Amino acid sequence: LDVILNRLADTLEAQRELKSSFRSAMIYPAIVFVAMVIVLVIMIVFVVPRLAAMYASLNVELPTITKGMIAMSDFVSGYWYILLLLIGFAVVGFRIVSQSETGRDYITRLVFALPVFGRINRQKEITEFAGTLSLLVASAIPIVEALTIVSKVVQEPVFRRGILESAKYVERGNSLSEYMKSNKAFPPLLVSMASVGEETGQLDAALQRVADYFAGETARSVKGLSSALEPIILIILGGMVGLLIVSIITPIYKITNSIS
């Protein structure tokens, strides 16, 4: 019992650290994104209208980029309440959709379909699946019952459905690895290790190795994502600032040339 409790504590701690590292990696991009939005709103709502009034009084021909910026500012200033309503409807709609099982599955599929985030979430799912199943098997819980329990840990609909189908397959007297081979939701490494574990009678140890491997892969992916996002965000931020500067400076440059 002590061994099982220690493994349970280790598994829960590993899962907590995995989720914490993912959240930590997303904090910086989220802060920068919010800051970008705030700066953009301030520029569009307060700065651009004053510049537009100044340009209008000088009767200067504005470049296309400046006209576009002024048009955007006029739209936001004139129809801000519509934008707020749309945002409100989107938030309420998201909450309504996420409350139903079908809606949650659809949102989860969208998240898992994302290029980088989907792969990280998939690795995290496999880590939690293998680690939890290993713990249940080590606790002498029947494999069919263990699979049914662990399916509740998984969020991705296809993977969850595959786990439940594997439980039915095993209940009919077949091996778990045989079903895994027929379902692409289970990665090859997991299939191979499950097969070895069944043959050697050490399925729990084999699954724990899989969990440890994918936990490491997830941690590396999260770290790589964090490192990759920083320059991308800086480039986007620099592009936005540059666009604003060009749209503001170009008319002033034309006015200066016309005066001289």
From TrEMBL:
One of its GO terms (cellular component) is plasma membrane. It is found in: Cell inner membrane. The keyword GTP-binding does not apply. Residues 1-49, 129-251 form the Type II secretion system protein GspF domain. The chain crosses the membrane at residues 25-48, 78-97, 129-150, 232-253. Keywords: Cell inner membrane, Cell membrane, Membrane, Transmembrane, Transmembrane helix. Pfam families: T2SSF (PF00482). It is a multi-pass membrane protein. The keyword Transmembrane applies. Gene3D superfamilies: Type II secretion system (T2SS), domain F. Coiled coil: none annotated. Its main location: membrane. Belongs to the GSP F family. This is Type II secretion system protein. It comes from candidate division WWE3 bacterium GW2011_GWA2_46_9.
